Amino acid sequence: MVQKSSRKFGAFKYISFLLFIIIAACAPVSAAPTDALPPPNVTVIAAALPPTLIPTPAATPTIDQLIFPYTIDGLCAHVYQSGDVHIREKLVENELYTTYYIDYPSDGLTITGIMQIPAGDGLFPVIVMNHGYFNRADYYSGDGTDRAAEFLVKRGYITLSSDYRSWGASDIGASLFYSGLTIDVINLLNAIPSISKADASRVGMWGHSMGGGVTIKVLAIDGGRVAPRIETRVKAAVLYSTVSADQADVINRWGMGCFGDIATGEKLYGCNSSDIIPLDLPADLIEAYKYASYNDELLRQISPFYHLDLVTAPVQIHYGAEDGKIFSGTPPEWSKKLYIGLNDLNKDVELFGYDNQTHSFKADEWFAFMERSAQFFDKYVKNMK
Questions:
Q1: pLDDT single digits (tens) 173-231
Q2: Is 289 exposed, middle or buried (0-12, 13-18, 19+ CB in 10 A)?
Q3: Domains of the chain
């Protein structure tokens, strides 16, 4: 009996031991405490702002760069903006011709003028007429060219007389060294194909006084244009009591252009109000104009006299032997200087002087001058080969 009881007790101990091990294995293990970690070392970086753009200052243009658009080379490269000739009003109609009041666009300006067309069916040759200087308050469209235009329209030519910018009812625009007037005339040339009765392949040009200076400048520019390259459209030109083709001569006689208000400038002595220099032009351009007016090298770049090699059209020059004795006249030496310059380059040029005539010819001498002009145009324009 004692032995059986001992076996039972031993079994109980064994079972109790196993239960202890099982319970101990299933109990959660307490984690040993660890040292606290130091706080993280965080650097806060602010969001980057967009970079501030600092513009590179534009280079200040030099005097040469400012004046270049008004030089012969600059005007040869100029992009001319023309359009169609527009008839505003019919002024005269008779059995020989019709006279119209016209306008046309020129580099954003509206330029007025006069057109005369012979009676009959076209196509007719064309003469562009460039008037001389008039006080603007006294000027009416066609002044300075009306008598000669009537002579030529009766000989079978369409005549076109630009008022230029600031004369007549034209818009006002800057003109340095006759550049604006020249641009207006070249844009009129460009508009000729819009005239239904005009033959744009037969075009001549006639210029008196200031208009003669415009004409010789047009001949040099139109003959020297390279963008796009074209043959000159002016087949022959007549200059009548012309201003000098050397801008230095013009400035030495009449001074620089007048600054500011045109009407005020025309009353001043010592400035040439053919040039229009508004005071709202950039200040550096105005200063460059003043500098260039007395700089020999820049005046050579501006003057057609030093670019006569570009002229391809025959030229006929007329002057009065008594011209230039009053301040507003043009000395005969200017016509002779141009003749010599063209002749030295073997250009086709003729020169006629008229005794006892001043700036505007009178009586029989005027008719002789115009008959020579018409015959010259007949040869090189109307009947050109």
A1: 999 999 999 999 999 999 999 999 999 999 999 999 999 999 999 999 988 776 554 44
A2: buried
A3: 68-382 (3.40.50.1820)
